[in-house]
From TrEMBL:
<feature type="transmembrane region" description="Helical">
    <location>
        <begin position="91"/>
        <end position="113"/>
    </location>
</feature>
<protein>
    <submittedName>
        <fullName>AI-2E family transporter</fullName>
    </submittedName>
</protein>
<feature type="transmembrane region" description="Helical">
    <location>
        <begin position="12"/>
        <end position="30"/>
    </location>
</feature>
<dbReference type="Pfam" id="PF01594">
    <property type="entry name" value="AI-2E_transport"/>
</dbReference>
<feature type="transmembrane region" description="Helical">
    <location>
        <begin position="36"/>
        <end position="59"/>
    </location>
</feature>
<keyword id="KW-1003">Cell membrane</keyword>
<feature type="transmembrane region" description="Helical">
    <location>
        <begin position="344"/>
        <end position="371"/>
    </location>
</feature>
<comment type="similarity">
    <text>Belongs to the autoinducer-2 exporter (AI-2E) (TC 2.A.86) family.</text>
</comment>
<keyword id="KW-0813">Transport</keyword>
<keyword id="KW-0472">Membrane</keyword>
<keyword id="KW-0812">Transmembrane</keyword>
<dbReference type="GO" id="GO:0055085">
    <property type="term" value="P:transmembrane transport"/>
</dbReference>
<dbReference type="InterPro" id="IPR002549">
    <property type="entry name" value="AI-2E-like"/>
</dbReference>
<dbReference type="GO" id="GO:0005886">
    <property type="term" value="C:plasma membrane"/>
</dbReference>
<feature type="transmembrane region" description="Helical">
    <location>
        <begin position="301"/>
        <end position="324"/>
    </location>
</feature>
<keyword id="KW-1133">Transmembrane helix</keyword>
<feature type="transmembrane region" description="Helical">
    <location>
        <begin position="248"/>
        <end position="269"/>
    </location>
</feature>
Length: 412
């Protein structure tokens, strides 16, 4: 009996020490949060080229697998006794992925750059007339709404004075800073280009090594965690990989379709900057929920310089296109990939977007789906362990659970 009491006291003491240590670690992390964030940022910037390669390898892995399998079958049928057919199939698949990426980037550049130059030229040439059209449109609205005219004219001088004050006290004294920031931006852009080139080389290595790396990772997992827990880890890792692959690849396909539909619509009704705006809409559509609106804002501003009516037509069209994508095209392509309710989709995008910016918004939905699934599985595990029902329907309108019979008592 005395030994049992000693065991209990020992466990209590051990638990108290563990809680204190965890509290101290959490406190230290929060106190040093700025230093940790800086260190993480430095590490990420240092290995950014490798990260580019990992992302490109992840996106091109399905293409690599299909091409490698197809070329391998052809070589095996043509040369049945050739032992190096698999090696050459992998080499051809890797080169094909590299060529596809280069062609895609080249095609985007050839589409965007001439259209962008043309758009800037047109904006500069049409800016005076566009401003006059906008002014005439506003005057027409104000003439029909005297109260609105009084409100705007009453605040016009105050707004003008404030803008003039900002220009003289803030903008002009900081011209040198803006030039330095522009120069550093150009250097950063060059750094990104270099990182992408290195990333392409990293991608080629990873595509050829992915099977070996996966087998080595599994070996380490089973060596450390054992068979039972190792099987769980491998299963979860496979689920995570499939989740990201299906969602991101599906979202890219969905965005390409949306960009094409937008271009066809704008070309049919003869809207200006159809190609440039369609590329912007397609690229930003990769961001769930908010993507179409992020792409629409600069496009509407650009069209507003040409014609307010055209800008309004485009705004209405984007709303229609977003509804079609969200209710028809997106579900057909993505299906129930994540299984998340709409609220959690919105919540995850806001959370990860606030923490990690645009990249966070792109990875938010699959990442939160994994967290959501993990929490669900853990709660089910602990409920079963306590002899309780894991299905949520048993907790609808629940008042309490009887402690002795474990019966679910509903609210009256």
């Amino acid at each position: 009996m005395e030994e049992n009491k000693n065991d209990i006291y020992f466990k209590w003491g051990l638990t108290a020490v563990a809680v204190i240590v965890i509290a101290l670690v959490i406190s230290l992390i929060f106190n040093k949060l700025g230093i940790i964030a800086t260190a993480i940022s430095t590490i990420i910037s240092t290995v950014s080229s490798v990260l580019y390669g990992v992302v490109m390898a992840f996106l091109m892995a399905p293409v690599y697998d299909h091409i490698g399998r197809w070329v391998g079958e052809i070589l095996s049928s043509l040369f049945p006794k050739w032992k190096k057919s698999d090696k050459y199939a992998k080499m051809i698949a890797t080169l094909s992925c590299l060529v596809i990426l280069i062609l895609v980037v080249f095609a985007l550049i050839m589409m965007i750059i001439p259209e962008l130059v043309n758009s800037i030229t047109n904006v500069i040439s049409y800016a005076p007339s566009g401003a006059e059209n906008l002014e005439a449109w506003l005057k027409d609205i104000l003439n029909k709404n005297p109260n609105l005219e009084k409100l705007i004219i009453g605040n016009y001088l105050d707004i003008s004075a404030r803008l003039s004050d900002i220009a003289t006290t803030t903008v002009l004294p900081n011209v040198n800073t803006y030039i330095k920031n522009l120069s550093s931006g150009v250097l950063n852009a060059l750094g990104v280009v270099v990182n992408i080139i290195i990333g392409l080389m990293v991608m080629m290595y990873l595509l050829n090594m992915k099977t070996t790396l996966a087998s080595q990772a599994k070996k380490i997992v089973y060596a450390v965690a054992g068979v039972k827990i190792g099987n769980e880890i491998v299963t979860e890792a496979r689920y995570i990989k499939n989740m990201f692959e299906k969602f991101i690849v599906g979202k890219i396909i969905d965005s390409i379709i949306i960009g094409i539909i937008n271009y066809v619509f704008m070309a049919i009704i003869h809207m200006p900057y159809a190609l440039l705006i369609s590329v912007v809409v397609g690229v930003t559509n990769v961001i769930p929920f908010f993507g179409p609106f992020i792409g629409a804002i600069p496009s509407i501003i650009l069209l507003l310089l040409i014609s307010p009516v055209t800008a309004l037509q485009f705004a209405v069209w984007i709303l229609v296109l977003q509804q079609v994508d969200g209710n028809i095209i997106g579900p057909k392509i993505l299906g129930q990939t994540t299984g998340l309710p709409s609220f959690w989709v919105l919540f995850s995008i806001l959370l990860f977007g606030g923490l990690f910016g645009i990249v966070g918004m792109i990875i938010a939905v699959p990442t939160w789906a994994i967290i959501y699934r993990t929490i669900s599985r853990l709660s089910e595990h602990f409920l079963k362990k306590k002899g309780l029902e894991p299905d949520s329907k048993h907790y609808m309108d629940l008042d309490h659970i009887d402690e002795e019979t474990k019966k679910y008592i509903k609210l009256e």
